[in-house]
Each structure stands twice: as structure tokens, then as C-alpha cells.
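[worker-b] picked up task from shared queue
[worker-b] task type: protein-ligand structure
[worker-b] ligand name resolved to flavin mononucleotide; SMILES cross-checked against name lookup, match
[worker-b] sequence length check passed
[worker-b] input payload:
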Amino acid sequence: MELSKLFSSGKIGSVQIKNRIVRSATFSHMAEKYGYIGDRNLKLYEELAQGGTGLIITEATAVDPGGAGGPYQVCLYEDSHMLGHKKLTNLIHNIDDTKVAIQIQHTGRLGSHPKYPTIGPSPIPYKETGITPQELTTEEVKQYIDKFASAGLRAYECGYDMVQLHGAHGYFLNNFISPYTNIRTDEFGGNTHNRVKILKDIYDKIRDGVGKTFPITIKFQSQDFIPDGISEGEGIKIAKFLSDIGFDAIEPSGGTREALYFTKNSTPSKLIKKVEDENYFLPFAKKIKAFMKDTALMLVGGIRNPLVAEKILQEGEADFISLCRPLIYEPDLPNRWKSGDLTPAKCISCNSCFVTMEKGPIYCVTKQNIKKKE
Ligand SMILES: Cc1cc2nc3c(=O)[nH]c(=O)nc-3n(C[C@H](O)[C@H](O)[C@H](O)COP(=O)(O)O)c2cc1C
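[worker-b] inference finished, payload out:
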């Protein structure tokens, strides 16, 4: 079987991408102090572009100092950060027509910044840290909408091909869309329409600033795997709202570290122990694909086999295939598959990359151990 679809070009909004392989956002913990992009980040993304990925989504990038997960998280909350981002987009655009998106984020309820309060839509304590977030006033929510929009506009000016909102994995925007963490009674809480309003307001503000052609995309929480959280049915409703709002692409994800207190193995990066564990958001994607209007669907989560990826695309179950851990091990995986070596990704989903990510810089421990033995 040829990988004719996987290596065919595809569009997100008006942006043409040379193949269907997306690098899903991956927190590298490689920025310079105070979130500036330096050589380590540039090298990481250069390697990915040289490896053949069509669209690189960089990494959770803080829209506000209080929303950064530490001093070495990439930031874009002020103009001084822009120089490094411009260098990055220039570098990537000069490598084989690779496209690059930025993911913008705030830690929200999962934050534990030494200088800034932890914030969220409602004062629901986070099980892992025991911290109860400060509930934002309606006016404050609007200020955070502006912070996301400003980061989106800066991203556009820096030459990114598109922006992705991080609406998953327990962070700020996920906190708003989830009935578990959002019990507000103002315009940003209550039914699905109100809980999604923050995403629509950010979308509209960015759209007003960038015009019609710059794609605005989102990675969103399709399921929290927490009782009273986003259920599959609620995730389907949210997906429909996102398509109606006009998002150019959506990447359904799910789970949080907090979900582990309720359900076994429900982190966004699940362990893949057998073939049946692969492609774990495919059942959800199948349920929403038909009603995605002009919204492209990026499928993420445990995709390891190029032949299965090809089949998913051929059958129209997704428009793009998104990979995170496999590209930490093999940044040149797309080129390997393109050259005809169709063996699945070498990544064994041990999640050792998660451990290295905590302190940074991120790397694959398994690969390093194999190299040491050779
Ligand atoms: C080390 C590491 C860092 C991650 N950082 C991010 C991130 O910054 N933003 C995000 O949306 N997801 C992040 N994720 C989740 C992945 O993008 C992806 O959704 C998940 O790992 C499943 O895909 P995979 O099986 O291809 O790894 C991260 C995952 C790992 C393992």
C-alpha cells in the first residue's frame, strides 16, 4: 500500500500544507529564561522541519506571565518576545516549504506560579496540588480574552502560518469549557453555549485583527474522563460549536493528570501497550467528522502505524494525522515513511519524555539508552 494520501498536500483554511503530517504541540522546556526563544528551540524545530513534517505546531506558549508553567516556557505576552519567534518562523519557512503554527496557552487552574495567583473560572480545588484557584470576575475574564487575542495577533505578525488555542488537558480554556471546573453563573458559565463563549470571543478578536485568511485552530478537550466533567456527548456538542464559530481546524484531545484520580491511565498521552491501544481518539473523531463544516480535523493520540494513518485519511475519518511522542524519538519519521520504510514509529510510549519535560530540556530517554548500548 502506498502512502498516497499521507503524502498528499492538504489545506487548513487558505494555507496549503505539503503533507498530512502534523507535529502536535509539545512543551519542550527549552526556552531561555523568561520565555525567550533561543538556539535550543531553534535547533529542535529545524530538525523537525528537516525530518519532513508538513505542519509543526510548536508548544504551549504563555499569553501572560502568570500563566507560564515556569521560567523556561516559551512566552509571547509582550513585544520583546517577538524577535525569537520571527527567527523561528523564518528558519522553518526556509526548509522544504514547512508550515509552522504556534499554540497559545495559560496554565489556569493547574498553575502554581510563585509570584502570581492561580486562577480559574470557579474555585474548584485541583487535586494534584490542593490549590483552589481564584475565581475571575466577569471583567477579568474579558482581560484574559484580550491576552489570548494579543498573543494571537503577535503570532500573526511574527509570521506564523496559523495559531492554535490550547483548550485541552486541564488548562485555562479547558477549565472554562468543562462543567466540572466551571460553575459560573455569568455569561461565561452555565450551558455549553456559555462555557464555549470564551473561545468564540477569543476567535472573534483574533479574526478582527488578522482578517479572513489566517487560520485560527484549537486543540480542545473532547472528554475530561472525570465525573461531571466533559463527557463524550458534551465533547460532540463542543466540537459542533467550534465548527460553527469558524475554527479552521480542530484537534480533539482529552484527559488530564487529575483524571488519574478517577480513572486509570487517562492522561492525554496514554500508554500504548498493544495495537488496540493505538489511535485512541479515532472513535470520537468518527462521531464528529460528518458535521465539521469547513473545519479540518487533526487526529492525535497514539498514532504509530503509517498504514493505519493512511487508511484513516483514505476513509475520510480525519484530514491530518498529528504526532507528538513519535517525533521526539524520530524527528525524521515522516521522511523515513516517505522513503518506503513503513515500519511503525519506534516510540514505545513509555512517557519518559514527560519526566524529562518536567525539568527540561525534553528528550527521549529510551532512545538515549539504546544509543548508549550501541
Ligand atoms: C512531553 C510532552 C509534552 C507535551 N506538551 C504538550 C503541549 O505543549 N501542548 C499540547 O497541547 N499537548 C502537549 N502534549 C500532548 C501531545 O501533544 C499529544 O496530544 C499526546 O502526547 C498524544 O499524542 P502522541 O500519542 O502522538 O504522543 C505533550 C505530550 C508530551 C508527551
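[worker-b] attaching auto-annotations
[worker-b] Residues 54 and 98 are 5 Å apart (CA to CA).
[worker-b] releasing lock
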